[in-house]
Amino acid sequence: RDIQMISCGADKSIYFRSAQQASDGLHFVRTHHVAEKTTLYDMDIDITQKYVAVACQDRNVRVYNTMNGKQKKCYKGSQSDEGSLLKVHVDPSGTFLATSCSDKSISVIDFYSGECVAKMFGHSEIVTGMKFTYDCRHLITVSGD
User: Fold this and answer.
1) What CATH architecture does domain 40-143 belong to?
2) pTM across the whole model
3) What is the DSSP letter of 48?
4) Where are the beta strands (DSSP E) in 3-105?
């Protein structure tokens, strides 16, 4: 499998690039470009490396195929009607993903169906980092509080 770089940003774009060997070294060449209508704050790739999940300002998680840049799924990443998704993290098994929202909530979502299986509050500041443990039994969150 080729080396691939995927990036997103506040310019509402997702760039898919593949590494190509040239005489003067390795170069990343753009293979796909997706222009969204909302700001993109974070992304994570699933265990198969076939899909990338993107946390969007409009509180949706958009899932794209890493090979062709096509959107595969779009589902609510927060049950709230306020705020923006700030972080997304796919668990090591590829079964669930966690999101954090600027309303200080955390959601755990079934990666395939998009169903919210848990929602949590508890931090008094926004969540700035999340990580599932390798055994997928715990979600560790970091906040400014």
Assistant:
1) 6 Propeller (2.120)
2) 0.88
3) T
4) 4-8, 13-22, 25-35, 40-45, 51-56, 60-65, 71-76, 85-90, 96-101
